[in-house]
Specification:
The chain is mainly alpha-helical. Helix content is 75%, strand content 0%. It folds into two domains: 98 residues, Rna Polymerase Sigma Factor, Chain: A (Orthogonal Bundle); 57 residues, Orthogonal Bundle (Arc Repressor Mutant, subunit A), CATH 1.10.10.10. InterPro entries: RNA_pol_sigma-70-like, RNA_pol_sigma-70_dom, RNA_pol_sigma70_r2, RNA_pol_sigma70_r4_t2, RNA_pol_sigma_r2, RNA_pol_sigma_r3/r4-like, WH-like_DNA-bd_sf.
Length: 192
């Protein structure tokens, strides 16, 4: 309703008013209108289509449950919905990371017979660990998320809050520094 008590003439404002009043048909209209946008946001960041579908569902469930918190004076319904989707996305990325860590721990505990240590492989790990320690903390985190956690640039940006361009720059510089050092180690190993 407008301050004068009349229904809003703007279709978005009318949809928002119906939604805030608990009209389930308004929720359906919102899903038809912005469900694809939320799904695409999930597909750009999450690893699978089913994760994007889960994100879409969770976003609209959270919106419905929190509809009393929507304030049309603070912004439009679409912006409020996308903010919910972003929070849901961050939560989903954190959940996926936890699941990956648990899976890695389970894999690490798995076989009882460890393979005999290969001196070259141990040396490689020591060199990589040493070189990672020489990167700046932000570069190191970005490199580890990209290569050890297999996250995409977009996922890293969403997780760390860094701009996408900064993520790419940190990754490029970090990998370049690691490559230079690795080449120096290889050259030193080949010398008689």
């Amino acid at each position: 309703m407008t301050p004068g008590g009349d229904p809003p003439s703007d279709p978005d404002a009318l949809l928002a008013a119906r939604f805030a009043a608990g009209d389930e048909h308004a929720l359906r209209a919102m899903y038809d209108r912005w469900g694809g946008l939320v799904y695409r946001l999930g597909r750009q960041t999450l690893p699978s289509p089913s994760d994007a579908e889960d994100l879409t569902q969770a976003t609209f469930v959270a919106a419905w449950r929190g509809r009393a918190t929507f304030d049309p004076e603070r912004g439009r319904l679409a912006g409020w919905l996308i903010a919910i989707a972003k929070r849901q996305l961050v939560d989903r990325l954190r959940t996926l990371q936890r699941e990956e860590r648990v899976a890695r721990v389970v894999e690490a505990v798995g076989p009882a017979e460890p393979a005999p240590p290969n001196p070259d492989r141990v040396l490689d790990r020591l060199v990589v660990a040493d070189q990672l320690a020489q990167l700046t903390p932000e570069q190191r985190r970005v490199v580890q998320l990209a290569f050890f956690d297999d996250l995409t640039h977009t996922q890293i940006a969403a997780l760390t809050g860094l701009p996408l361009g900064t993520v790419k720059s940190h990754l490029r510089r970090g990998v370049s520094q690691l490559r230079r050092t690795w080449e120096e180690v290889d050259d030193a190993a080949r010398r008689p």
